[in-house]
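Much of what follows relies on a compact textual record of a protein's fold. Think of the row as the fold of the chain written in a discrete alphabet. An example makes this concrete, so a full record is given next.


***
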Amino acid sequence: MNTEKTSTPTDAPVVNPEAAHDAVTAVDPRLLVREQGLKGYVSEFRRKLHAGDLGSIPVVIGLIIICIIFQSLNSNFLSAQNLSNIAVTMVATGMMAVGIIFVLLLGEIDLSVGSVSGVSGAIVAVLTVTHGMNEWLAVIIAIASGAAIGAVHGFFFARIGAPAFAVTLAGLLFWLGFMLQLLGENGTINLDSDGVVGKLTTYYFSDVAAAYGLAAVAVAGFFLSSYFDNRRRAEAGIPSRPLSDTIFRTVVLGVIAFAAAVMFNQYKGLPLALVLFLAVLVLTDFVLRRTTYGRKIFALGGSVEASRRAGINVTAVRISVFAIAGTFAAIGGLFWASKIAAANQSAGAGDLLMNVIAAAVIGGTSLFGGRGRTWNALLGVMVIVSIQYGLALESIATPIQYMITGGVLLATVVIDSVTRRTQRSAGRA
């Protein structure tokens, strides 16, 4: 065999040496940020701005502006009592928003979550008060019922092929009627404020060590997670953050976490509701970002056909996602029932559905699917509830509150649309 014809010449001239050199040494600018210090972060921000990759920056800036405005109008806005009340009130809507985020990641919508939350509260009230069932068992049945309802919606959408909008709109009406039927002619069933459901929003860890301990655990957990993740990336030859960057981010988180702990300890202590909400956010964020199932959800949000060709069971994932939305709708309903210590006909009605969807979208989850994190629920619901409490302190009428919340939601959707268009122009979407 003549090896000379198959060997690669090593002395062949390079047509364009400068272009070849650039092709070898060019590096994605995102990989150089940590090596440039503060200048690198400025460059990264400019790059993201031009590429339409703003992440949670707009909502964080908006939240800061909201705090400044309402604090200037009323010095009680940033008081420990008001902030603690905001933290507890936002949990019910936030729980439901977590479930909606899963659906939005598919590029779909679930309009039934408000009614499902009302059904959840009604089930617990009927089983415990009317039939004398153990409250823990009633809570489990209520949550399982929410999951089953969501799975039914997902079945009609994923298996039958009916539009999710139409299926969940029908669910909104059906489960609203079902809730009214459960509550009966009286329409209201009072709950034991000292029971399992009652304590969801009324129990506080009064020991100061609880708030500080949670802050310490959160900071330590963040640092260890970031450290070992960066070490794995470095061992695999993938660019990672330097230790100094991880320490800086940990310090920032520590300042926020311990400031919150100080604030909670100035009032009643650490709210149980907030602890449960944060635990849910950590768990669901891990599922979405660290598991195969989570990657399947993002893949479906990007392209259903491509996901199907990749071997993903599209039908099963879709049904499971709607089941998750129903589960968190039921959990949110329990927190609402706890808030008013009753299950009544107004549960799940009014502006609840719009606030849940708005919380997810305002927090940074895209309505077009494929982009978002469950932590967006925290940011979004903080914006909505902060606006509500701030306007309430100023005795602003409810219609004005609706108008302002709607304006914020519209601005967020516009930013999302512009962002996606910018990303397409930059070749990133």
